[in-house]
């Protein structure tokens, strides 16, 4: 396991129609470091966004997609990613990063 600091765990929020609908249930989706654990994601969210309390974290590993290279018969792959869906407690403050979206 790599020594990852809390500010390196969360890479960016996932902004899709499905993730926006989950925000009504206090669930937020982030792209996270591929080697981050659930406890590291929980710690990072609680430290980066003041007033938040994490109830649970679900993570999923997403394999890279196979892509054609320059129109030939050669193939490459995009990078692997990891997503985390973070559920906040009922008395927790909302995350403000999504306010302008």
Account of the protein in words:
The protein has three helices and six strands; from the N terminus they run αβαβαββββ. By secondary structure, it is an alpha+beta fold. The strands form two sheets. It has a four-stranded antiparallel beta sheet. A two-stranded antiparallel ribbon has the order 4-5.
What features would you highlight for this structure?
elongated; 101 residues; single chain; alpha+beta; four-stranded antiparallel sheet
| SS summary, helix count | 3
The biggest beta sheet is recorded as: 4 strands, antiparallel
| Element pattern in H and E | HEHEHEEEE
Q: How many β-strand runs?
A: 6
Estimate the global geometry from the Cα principal axes.
elongated
What value does the average pLDDT take?
Answer: 90
> Biggest sheet: strands side by side, in what order?
1-2-6-3
Oligomer: single chain
Low-pLDDT segments, ≥5 res: none
Quote the distance from N terminus to C terminus. 35 Å
